[in-house]
Design goal:
206 residues; Ribosomal Protein L4, Chain: A; 2 domains; six-stranded mixed beta sheet; 33% helix; 7 helices; alpha/beta; 6 strands
């Protein structure tokens, strides 16, 4: 399929062919859901930890009589039922990451790209460059393009001035093509790809 290429000045700069096997897939909400869960689970630190009974520092001396005390027969106060004791079945340090086959991850990324095309939320830029790195200038340019929330994907290297200009604009994310991912695509209204990014993605999905 063909789509128009635009510049930051909101002028047309030719057309580009989009591969139907990448940008023309049917929407698969189940794939997107699995992929987003996979990404967010991998981001969790998993450093939450409580002390169990064996990790509490304290005496193990039996503090009550075996019989005649009118209560249960406790060995020591490190039990979880006492204040200052260990916690039963508390959280431990662990990884929350799950496994997802590479083919599923690839298909989910293609589906996310296709969803932006079907929703007419894909914009192809000739190039993402800024001469002076001014945030105000870039904000005005994005406003002309009708962009208020977008993920902007450039080639293997992001223009330093452009990244600096976009840094202080709310809901505008700039990533190199290596960093493209399903979660960031879906969390913004528009997906902006440069011609360099499209070429890199075509090579990646061959």
């Amino acid at each position: 399929m063909k789509t128009d290429v635009t510049t930051l000045e909101a002028t047309k700069s030719g057309t580009v062919d989009l591969n139907d096997s990448v940008y023309g897939l049917d929407l698969r909400a189940d794939l997107l859901h699995r992929m987003v869960n996979y990404q967010l689970a991998s981001r969790q630190a998993g450093t939450h930890k409580t002390k169990n009974r064996s990790e509490i520092v304290g005496t193990t001396k039996k503090f009550g009589r075996q019989k005649g005390g009118g209560g249960a027969r406790h060995g020591n106060r490190k039990s979880n039922i006492f204040i200052g004791g260990g916690r039963a079945h508390g959280p431990v340090v662990r990884s929350h990451a799950t496994k997802l086959p590479k083919k599923v991850r690839t298909l989910a990324l293609k589906t996310a790209l296709s969803s932006k095309v079907k929703a007419e939320q894909l914009i192809v830029l000739d190039k993402a460059e800024s001469k002076d790195g001014k945030t105000s200038v870039l904000r005005n340019q994005l406003t002309k393009l009708g962009i208020t929330s977008a993920l902007i994907i450039d080639g293997s290297d992001v223009n330093e001035n452009f990244a600096r200009a976009a840094r202080n604009i709310e809901k505008i994310d700039v990533l190199p093509v290596q960093g493209i991912n399903v979660y960031d695509i879906l969390r913004r209204d528009h997906l902006v790809l440069t011609k360099a990014a499209i070429d890199s993605l075509e090579e990646r999905f061959k």
